[in-house]
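Margin note from the TA: students keep mixing up input and output lines. Inputs are the sequences; the output is the structure of the whole complex. Example:
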Amino acid sequence: MNCKDLFARVKEMQPLVHHLTNNVTINDCANVTLAIGGSPVMATSIEEVADMAQLAQALVINFGTIDDAMYEAMIVAGQAANQKGIPVVFDPVGVGATPFRTNRAKDYLGKVKISVVRGNASEVFALIGGEVQTRGVDAGDVAISKKELAVKAAQQLNTITVISGEVDYVSNGTEVVGIENGDIWLTRITGTGCTTASLIAAFAGSTDDWFAASVAGMSTMSLAGERAKKRLSENDGIGTYRLKLMDEISLMNGDIWEEGVRLI
Amino acid sequence: MNCKDLFARVKEMQPLVHHLTNNVTINDCANVTLAIGGSPVMATSIEEVADMAQLAQALVINFGTIDDAMYEAMIVAGQAANQKGIPVVFDPVGVGATPFRTNRAKDYLGKVKISVVRGNASEVFALIGGEVQTRGVDAGDVAISKKELAVKAAQQLNTITVISGEVDYVSNGTEVVGIENGDIWLTRITGTGCTTASLIAAFAGSTDDWFAASVAGMSTMSLAGERAKKRLSENDGIGTYRLKLMDEISLMNGDIWEEGVRLI
Amino acid sequence: MNCKDLFARVKEMQPLVHHLTNNVTINDCANVTLAIGGSPVMATSIEEVADMAQLAQALVINFGTIDDAMYEAMIVAGQAANQKGIPVVFDPVGVGATPFRTNRAKDYLGKVKISVVRGNASEVFALIGGEVQTRGVDAGDVAISKKELAVKAAQQLNTITVISGEVDYVSNGTEVVGIENGDIWLTRITGTGCTTASLIAAFAGSTDDWFAASVAGMSTMSLAGERAKKRLSENDGIGTYRLKLMDEISLMNGDIWEEGVRLI
């Protein structure tokens, strides 16, 4: 697994990352994709998503604000991505909160081959059939360690699984990597989960090693969040934090990453 | 009415605030909800909005970019909120500008019990049947003082009414509170009205005193807007202002509020 | 052509700029419209877009995330704008990337009289029937100089044409103006094309000279982008750049523009 080289690689390849995502953080997803070196496209009409996915190097599917029209387009886009062999990164936002989301997520797993699932523990737990107490789209508690959950979900779903948390875990079902970086303020702004999926997809669109891409994407967000916090002054609040986070993502490179990342 | 304690209370309770809102400021609404201590969720599919509203502690309905599908979902969500007894904060964006908006708003008032209406004077005036000259979604002139309008609308609509302006007014039909804080630059960025509704909803989701919550929410925005302006340097424009506003909202607490607020 | 006076004029007239635009940059479009002195409205329901366009002084049509419902509303809004005689600024985002976009764009040109087309070279080239290799919504290469393309497209489409690039070109089919300002970082954040269309529309809603409005709008973005870059410190990334860009747009006036712009 060579994460370090991916930072230069994504800037060189500028992979087109096709997103079918939510209306809340769609702008952040586009800007983060650009910040790391990728090229975002957000087409969602069912009439063009297959064509667009065929042009892309990676696809992000995010359930944040799905409705039926969006869901149908996600199936078409996902199947086109599968046909082309590009990675599909799935962010099961809010799965477990309502039957609608949980059912659509399970249905989706049966129709599209997912490469990487990225969620918080309760979402991933719900995805593999666990009973969760969620509160909307934010993380609830689950009766299993996050590390165990990452491995189990990766095995059961036959994907790479990325679980965000105080320590993040990335597993392909056999290996598991923990990421100790991060900052609690990452949970105080919306969209840091969604944009982590964009980072993973941008890296995965630049390499065949989607496990390395997942570790690189998740750790870029956690390390950038940690570095951004250190750059705050006394009277800075979450507006400034959000700006510094975007700065740090755009400034990240292999050297900064290697020096700052704490993998276990 | 104890507004001061609500700042600690919302952070402790982290109320889930379900929004059915517009695509323009949806990200700001989510971030402001987080900044004050609440937890935002933006689900809009008619198939899940009732379930999500049942999980929530408050509901925001914002007419900014409604279409028929959104409107139908708003009815379902609003009725679920009514059934659960959680507060419904209604932001009648642009009502008075087109017959479509005005008719839908009046129809909505007949189908869902609203707890708090928050708008500018022309929107609220249109809502109670006044003739207004609006310009899109921004404030037009009305032939009644804002204070009078707040009281009259509260009585006629049987809700708490919040009217944003140079002085903001909050009334429950008997009492009326004016808020002298604010800054003209709050009108130079989009979404400060929408996010005020999010603040009110977050507070209202943390207390039974929705009048106090409305005063706390409206005055938080006006005071934060005033404080943000004071933190600008000479060459700062509205980009920096917007960031400082978000900072000030996230830094607001009972002490800062008590020291800075000017109620009349 | 008097661009300089337009900065005061737009602030005085506060033209209502109706947008039917994409979900990615809709917030930026609203804030940029406000920053330059206009008043944005983003209504998209087919039931009200004609009424709203009738209230407006300019209309922006942006293809970023179109679907069939949005497309139908764009036709209704565009025809209402034509009837009232207000300028229609068309941003053919991603045209050339998928047959869906290209066909809809050509269909749209037959149904609505466009005043100004603003795009990158590959989009405009596709619009006039050229064969392009696009990568999603970002610029691809075309086998014609941008200056030539601006003139040719203006003649063929019978509109003013604005082509963004290292040097921007604005043509009405007989005259052509080049704008040498700009910065490569304008391509590292999403939405600087979309918001340029908002600037052009705000100016065009304040004058009958839509050619001057197009030069003023395009050059405001390029000059603001250049000035924003100069204000960055060593560790600033694209988050800070985006904020400074918004600052510079909001601070722009006739004097700053005249001193900084480099037209050829």
